[in-house]
Design goal:
2 helices, single chain, 5-stranded antiparallel beta sheet
Length: about 110
């Protein structure tokens, strides 16, 4: 004859009859993760790639707008910074990521992105 405590432990380890398996219960969770990825993560990744491509394609002479709303012309490029001319013979250095777009076009990078 088996001890009652041991019988209770064995009964707790097996799923009740008619209960869905672990993998079936995992499907809704996987679907939520998939939807989250395609709605939020993938578009943000594509937007960041577009911004990175824009920053790498900047060149001397481009008329751009900074994140502070300053209209300027690029006069020199470094790896991390850009020298821009905001008025005749008035030049300042700004971070390359502060350039948000070309003058007259919609911004490529929005405030808060790098």
């Amino acid at each position: 004859m088996q001890e009652p405590a041991l019988t209770g432990l064995v009964a707790m380890g097996t799923p009740p009859a008619g209960a869905p398996s672990f993998w079936v219960q995992l499907v809704p969770f996987a679907l939520v993760l998939g939807i989250f990825y395609f709605i939020f993560v993938l578009p943000m990744k594509r937007k960041q790639q577009k911004v990175d491509q824009f920053h790498s394609s900047l060149k001397v002479g481009d008329k751009v707008i900074t994140s502070g709303g300053i209209f300027c012309t690029i006069t020199r490029l470094n790896e991390q910074s850009v020298q821009v001319e905001v008025a005749e013979r008035v030049r300042i250095h700004v971070a390359r990521t502060a350039i948000t777009g070309y003058q007259g076009q919609d911004p490529v990078a929005t405030e808060g992105q790098s």
